[in-house]
Write a structure and sequence with these properties.
This protein is an alpha/beta fold and about 260 residues long. It has nine helices and 15 strands. Strand 2 and strand 3 form a beta hairpin.
């Protein structure tokens, strides 16, 4: 049964079966993937081999990111078909914390030619794969190989074999030390070149709440839209923000900036 569910637990399936975003994703898969049957097989049942390149239709044309595991296929589908980080107008400036292998950045960059991204990812192997997936977009993004945290310095970082679930200050079978930058410094760097940050995306495997709490309110006030992974809609929203949740992704909308 686990194989038929793509290694998803029955509890996970039961918890999400009524979520409308999943059905939107299934419809979008037929639209976004030139080879939808291959995509359905990979996403729903965990079948087919890796690494592989999967073509995706975007507003900027066809892109073919390289995926290294079934878990990368999950990420691709969540971003491009379930639209976990959906945007209306192309965001001029995106700060992407926890950029992994670059699939979220690829989504943002393909929204339009004016989009610029500042990316943060601490795992060297992920950064190497990110650069490969963002070939052709080098002039529109900058990548810093650091973990974004609520402090400056160094910290232990748990690695995982798939590259998707690494986490700061957690123990595991494979642990390394990574440089860290305070979230305030990251926001200050972006706001030094723009009046506002159109979108801040944070996916740091359990550290999201700490980052939000550590960020200076005056800096957050200049962010139009924030996406946080896995924190729950009951997270206290910063002053001036309204929260909503879909598939464990929380959207914080800055009312004054219209994010």
């Amino acid at each position: 049964m686990s194989r038929l569910l793509g290694d998803r637990s029955l509890q996970l399936v039961a918890r999400n079966i009524a979520e409308p975003a999943h059905y939107r994703a299934l419809v979008n898969m037929a639209r976004r993937y030139p080879r939808p049957l291959d995509a359905y097989s990979r996403y729903l049942f965990g079948r087919r081999s890796y690494p592989t390149r999967v073509a995706v239709r975007t507003p900027s044309g066809l892109v073919r990111p390289t995926l290294w595991s079934f878990h990368d296929m999950l990420t691709l589908n969540e971003i491009f078909c379930r639209e976990d980080y959906g945007v209306g107008e192309p965001p001029p400036l995106v700060v992407d914390v926890g950029s992994n292998i670059g699939l979220s950045a690829l989504y943002f960059l393909t929204r339009g030619p004016a989009v610029r991204c500042r990316l943060y990812e601490p795992v060297a192997r992920n950064v190497e794969r990110l650069r490969r997936n963002l070939e052709g977009f080098e002039e529109r993004y900058a990548i810093e190989q650091v973990a974004v945290a609520d402090f400056d310095g160094e910290a232990r970082f748990r690695l995982d074999p798939f590259g998707r679930y690494g986490a700061l200050n957690q123990d595991g079978d494979e642990v390394t030390t990574v440089p860290c930058r305070h979230i305030d410094g990251v926001l200050e760097d972006a706001l030094a070149v723009a009046d506002t940050i159109a979108l801040l995306k944070v996916d740091v495997e359990g550290y999201e709440s700490a980052l939000l709490a550590a960020a200076r309110p005056d800096l957050l006030a200049r962010v139009a839209l924030i996406y946080l992974e896995g924190v729950g809609a009951d997270l206290p929203a910063p002053d001036g923000f309204v929260a909503s949740e879909s598939c464990e992704t929380v959207r914080l909308h800055n009312v004054e900036l219209g994010g």
